[in-house]
Input
Amino acid sequence: MRSFLIALQFLTIFPVKIKPEIKNEEFGLSLFYFPFVGLAIGLVLSSSAILFSFLPVLVKGVLILIVSVIITGGIHLDGFADTCDGFYGNKPKEKILEIMRDSRIGAMGAMGLILLLLFKFSLIVNLQGVILWKALIEMAVFSRWSQVLACGITHSARQEGKANYFIEYSSKKILILGGVFTVVLFLLMAGLKGVFLFMLSFLCVLLFIQYVKRRIGGMTGDTIGAISEIAEVSVLFFNLLILNL
Output
């Protein structure tokens, strides 16, 4: 239960008080519950889609986006923006890390954030009914498991930061169990198409993880947040693609 609360504290804005102080290895143990917290987030988003179903499609899409930002505190969007700022151009590792450490958002971060939200909004408004609420659950679970994946198959690019503890104390067992849970959920949501959807989204996330490793040698909290956002839009996009096909 304590590990679940740690995961809930880092992935949502829910007021969770954990005493005594969290030990370093507990960060790694909490990764087991990331997909389950993702499921809770997905259920909130899918409930929002149903709740706002009487509204015009565009209004409903904006409201779903607002709920998703509020419930997570926009932490992954912040990481995505910082990653866009840092990775733009052919800069060395040290300069990339220095830029991402800066709390101020740059031009590339702002543009990346705007384009990401527009893309996500356009995908949401083009997915309707049962397909939409299922896609929202799938994306929330998959994106949180993608963070576990990033921690489990990479090293830390920095010597400091809480992301180090998640990476250092992650385990292959937790990664595999979370992956099985995610695949089963996709299978239950969309049958064999769900497995195909998972594989396509997984490929996108894996390619980005490899790109980050090539540029800076490992993960930071910002790049893990960026991976979460890329995972979300991948699931939504491939849902739309498979639907149209």
Notes: The chain has a mean pLDDT of 92. Residues 58 and 125 are 6 Å apart (CA to CA). The chain has one domain: 2-244.
